[in-house]
Input
Amino acid sequence: MRRKRETTSRFSSDTRPSCEEYLALADRNEMAITHLFEIHRNEDYLTGSRELANLCGAGIWHGKNFNFAYGNPVKEGEIFLIGTLELGVIETPGHTEESILIVLKDREVSDKPYMVFCGDALLAGDIGRTDFYGQERKAEMAGKIHDSIVKKILALGEGVIVCPAHGAGSLCGGDIADHSFTTAGYERATNPLLALAREEFIARRVTESPYYPPYFRTMEVLNANGPQLLDRIPRPGPLSIPEVVALRKSGCQIVDIRSPTSFAAGHIPHSLSIWRDGLPSFMGWFLDYNEPIVVVDDFNCGLKDVFCHFTRLGYDNLRGYLGGGFPSWSKAAQETDSFATCTAQELKERQEKETVFVLDVRDIKNRRSVGHIPRSHHRYIGELTEHLDEIPRDLPVITYCDGGYKGSLAAGILHANRYRSVTNMLGGMTSWKNTGFWIER
Amino acid sequence: MRRKRETTSRFSSDTRPSCEEYLALADRNEMAITHLFEIHRNEDYLTGSRELANLCGAGIWHGKNFNFAYGNPVKEGEIFLIGTLELGVIETPGHTEESILIVLKDREVSDKPYMVFCGDALLAGDIGRTDFYGQERKAEMAGKIHDSIVKKILALGEGVIVCPAHGAGSLCGGDIADHSFTTAGYERATNPLLALAREEFIARRVTESPYYPPYFRTMEVLNANGPQLLDRIPRPGPLSIPEVVALRKSGCQIVDIRSPTSFAAGHIPHSLSIWRDGLPSFMGWFLDYNEPIVVVDDFNCGLKDVFCHFTRLGYDNLRGYLGGGFPSWSKAAQETDSFATCTAQELKERQEKETVFVLDVRDIKNRRSVGHIPRSHHRYIGELTEHLDEIPRDLPVITYCDGGYKGSLAAGILHANRYRSVTNMLGGMTSWKNTGFWIER
Amino acid sequence: MRRKRETTSRFSSDTRPSCEEYLALADRNEMAITHLFEIHRNEDYLTGSRELANLCGAGIWHGKNFNFAYGNPVKEGEIFLIGTLELGVIETPGHTEESILIVLKDREVSDKPYMVFCGDALLAGDIGRTDFYGQERKAEMAGKIHDSIVKKILALGEGVIVCPAHGAGSLCGGDIADHSFTTAGYERATNPLLALAREEFIARRVTESPYYPPYFRTMEVLNANGPQLLDRIPRPGPLSIPEVVALRKSGCQIVDIRSPTSFAAGHIPHSLSIWRDGLPSFMGWFLDYNEPIVVVDDFNCGLKDVFCHFTRLGYDNLRGYLGGGFPSWSKAAQETDSFATCTAQELKERQEKETVFVLDVRDIKNRRSVGHIPRSHHRYIGELTEHLDEIPRDLPVITYCDGGYKGSLAAGILHANRYRSVTNMLGGMTSWKNTGFWIER
Amino acid sequence: MRRKRETTSRFSSDTRPSCEEYLALADRNEMAITHLFEIHRNEDYLTGSRELANLCGAGIWHGKNFNFAYGNPVKEGEIFLIGTLELGVIETPGHTEESILIVLKDREVSDKPYMVFCGDALLAGDIGRTDFYGQERKAEMAGKIHDSIVKKILALGEGVIVCPAHGAGSLCGGDIADHSFTTAGYERATNPLLALAREEFIARRVTESPYYPPYFRTMEVLNANGPQLLDRIPRPGPLSIPEVVALRKSGCQIVDIRSPTSFAAGHIPHSLSIWRDGLPSFMGWFLDYNEPIVVVDDFNCGLKDVFCHFTRLGYDNLRGYLGGGFPSWSKAAQETDSFATCTAQELKERQEKETVFVLDVRDIKNRRSVGHIPRSHHRYIGELTEHLDEIPRDLPVITYCDGGYKGSLAAGILHANRYRSVTNMLGGMTSWKNTGFWIER
Output
């Protein structure tokens, strides 16, 4: 039900910049899209509401407690009638100050609420982040979101269907079925955070510090102003070897979307190993918004979805992809880098035989909940570049993560920074666990 | 929410014979389809489970109280574990004796039920038919379905999501979003039939006699045996004028899927006016399973969906469609029939000026709930052919229905049966109501 | 081979405003679109080159003998090398002064020409129009195109593949297979206009006056300046009855894309009967570029392609389509018009019994080559509105055309202009011919 | 024009087993497919004609000089009329004894031939193989094909469009634009084999021995009998780790479709490195028709096209693909193999420092025409398994090919056969050439 895909972002889609799907859905049902509600200001991707509004003439509404440069403010109690459907606004501060939710009733049937679109307040099995206003307001915002959920959402009755803004899944692939929904009754019975008393919940939230990628700030500003209108999802074309060579000379960012095995055995020097499913979560930590970006794949398969990730995060500096894929780089006899990989078994053997620096780059929460490889050090992948001084240059370094992907990104960063012996452990902590080796906690 | 499309069938999709969508959905999510549960034996279309099982190697299960010629029986309490998901079987006789429902739990989260797939027992705002075993068992089956719903579905808790087998909508077009879902709590609060006490409900059901199209019996037999495997949705091609002329000579059924206006102004003699959205509901009343079928449209637009309706109802005798559409028939100077149309205003004027026989061909339930045009007679469209003796041949006949479509079908039948003056009122009862004319009840 | 679709335009696609297909084709082949050549300035639709250039960063080139406001001029002898492919420019004035053609060689294979893209000079079985510069220059331009073809295209050798800019077929539907191609040898042997000596050809051209729709002038101006960039094909949504009623009050153009039968039996007063396939050829004769446009269909099927026709001809005033189609207009009990239809047989009977004015609205070339119904009068459909004074108001009028479509448009125009008795003959001249009735020439 | 994709098969599509595209093309044009002509018996893939005939009711015809178990024989001079189109049969033995070609005329235009579908006789820049009847008949068949081309195809006139059965390109992806066509005049002027006199051509053909993969024999037998009807392209689903582990135990073939880099750095022991574009050319050399097949990718992207290759070559034993891709294998801590890769520079350095066995696995024609790395040995990849005795076990082996793919397949085979030091040179001969190193001939 609540599928957890380790390799994808936990930040998912509210309104997608690629609006074609919404329009196609409306077309198939001979319906017009007339109202767009922004449940809150987003920080994790570019909202598509202004784009969609532009395409279909719909109006945009959002909570009154933030000064958006576009759209219309709404406040508690406002009602929108669409045929026999009633959409009611409820203010639910917590995740952000201006968060709202929309309660749907079908008046033809009853005046009971049927469904609630509750943004980032109540999620399936979770509750939205409350740390965006800094440490000093963490307790306040946690209290607010708790009140919003208990007094406003759960109060709608056990049988109301709850549609949170975030599912488990893909960002841009357009698989609506992936969006989870739940009910107030099911969450009351099963959501572990709802089992905490208000003060317990606040206390826990005060001590937590979720990672905050640098691009969040960019997204907030762009979304507050209404993101730039896109003609359409940009169509970066294939780049020839000479074009890529020239771009590297004048300065560009190479994003290598291949697997950890393919990256380790050969890659363009200084490229970033951000595998395709990891793009939405990690590109925002590493990519600059100005220097041109070039994508490298093996077979240039399914790139449309890949490009979409860049659009969603506001990167309009994606120049293209390497035509013919990485093999064409080899054929052109261009300079190539590589580093070693190892299995869990091999890592253990090396630990027993020599002094190695084992680097865990997972989210600290995973390190704590799952445990870690004995004698491994920790630094979250998103923060690695700023903390290279923690990593010794005189020891072989072996990186690992949850499943082997972030380890590849880390190994690539170290290798590009001239660490002399870098190895990525394939399969990550999952592999270690499956060998049955001892796990330190 | 509960969209009611007057012109489409109330019988909708459980498992579609066109299995491509299910397979594509599984592919997109890198999942295998391994279990198919038939909630009950269907009577309103060909079930696709055997076809799908054949394509993906899944097993089929259905309730033990019917002797299916394929698949495996299940009984109360059986559990299927798929990863952390638990699917539990509950027997819920009523709609049919062998009806079951499937309760879904996500054990990773909780042992509370999350969702229930409840077939034709509890529907959104309605309760499944209970008349399939004849008048003498109506009370018994109504009692059984009431017990199944109250004691087994509602007992799962208010917050459980209820997925009925029937939504409001299209049969084959593949718009999953059209499928309605609801919750036990919402139904308890709003479903009018659940507001009745057990005995009241039974008493009402005993007096009701929903229409029973002749093809239901065919579907039941085919579904009991497991419908014939289809290579794929048949691809009837265009037929030339000479081919259609030859088919007419040797005997064929012409199904004209155009609008009431287009049909009235010109059609191939003896064709049946079953507009494209009306096919799933009405083809089964009129079409024989042996004589070849030819489809006629104006522009041959979107025929793939049209053909799909024939497949779903087990018609493998669809020979093709008229190439070039009806206009090519005109160009070929072939024999053409036509009849008149009128507006609500014109009908009223004619009633005032002359003696006309106004024929209402709607479902009797609609006639009763909405009311009817004064001095109109009633005979349901599905039963018209068998009751032509009720329609006088010495008076002009004006047909009407809900929106003008079934009236066209009726007018065509009368015209083909040599009624000398036939007129279809465009817009049907809806138009009459909108003129503000008096409605008789 | 040279399919002639009576009901569609002879003006077909050079560069489509909907550029998605070109981009998708390039994507599938991992190619970049880098060069766009405009073979000549278009007058029959909006060119998409500037739109496509904007999307993929390609350059645009066109003949030097016209002052385009965008792109780059090229002249005789210029060569573009793309890998081993050589594209050479040859100037071929005639259709327009700045017309060019592109000769393709594959230097890896040979320096012989492989293919020639020859715009509107040599067409399959025809030669491009030469009347755009007025009567006084007809002889000059005819001579120029003859020289261009004989001295420049045929001179490339019999085996060169000839790709003309115009095929027989659809404009926007994206069916590349519809584009015809031929060879210099096949045209030399079979093209009837190439069988004429230079002076014979000029003499014939001087006497010809092909129709010149009013929107040609608009297209020329827009194309000279580089048409406005479109965000994408506009997505007109469904309009409710009240919205259409309001638009009619404030002034709008209703385009009814249904069949002649459907239109005759009922339509919104003052709507134009331009069936879907007739849009590219006839909308430009009748539709104003400022007043809002509303589309009416029966089932709102395949509207995306319909909307595309409006975009291609530069109409950005398409407001939407009637939700629910014409039947919803009937249901709403709104004012409706209708007129009669007849068959060829019935027309003949009426001619024998009474005085009727039979109006032929075909292209005068078809009237001459095919012949006409005895005692019929002629006025081309595109010119009808300006010549209503030729049509008597005191006689019943029966319209006809090639296949029944343009006759519907004509009948609708007459009916809207308060002609008291209007009838459209279904099936047109084709039907008359197929009855075996006498044809006058 | 004649794109040569080193990594794809030279054997391309005549009639594809996946018939959906043909049917969709016919649908879009409102046409029926009524006649299927098999230009000759195929040996390189399963013909789809019987499948297509079954779907659309078309008839099948083929040359009379082979005893097909289905369809109808045709002989020289037979004419098929379809509307105004005339299809004429000409017998052109050479590639096979029963080869035919179809000459297309459009009688509405002329009785000159417009186009010829010439199977594997005259190809764009090449002439079909003539070695299928063994060494003793090579001269005879070469003479026959030369006569067929000169006396029957070129005799149709320079301007006739020539459509050979084989283009350069993809097999199953459905990109019709990839199919090359040419003209008799262009071939006469540029085809190097047509520049040879008859006897010269025969003499050359007698000395040539193109590779003959083992599956050709299977295809011939299946095609002679009419291949088994497929329900549709099989839909292998994802396999879990335990399922793959079990399949490996009971015996299965693992096809690893990843890139050479990804394969080298980690793969399931004993898997075959046949990258996705190499499947049509190389699977037939290595895969058995009975033992189950499992596909392994990195991201399971675009697998539909991959599966299609298996269908086309008659493999119905494809069981599925590894769910989650190779990374899931690592995570499961399953046994993994790897070998080294090197660049051209590194290979040269090793040759200078130590004794290595450099193995060239290219087509011998490429080795001869392009030249080879000094001191390298040759054995074609398709024949490697049978000739392992030629490869020393006491030396490090470095494999190379044209671009690095076949070298990966070779390195994998050697590694699986317990060669102790195996390295694949990335980029192959192309890379060597691009470094500017000396090339031996």
Remarks:
- Residues 1-17, 168-179 of chain B have pLDDT under 50 and may be disordered.
- DSSP finds 15 helices and 21 strands in chain B.
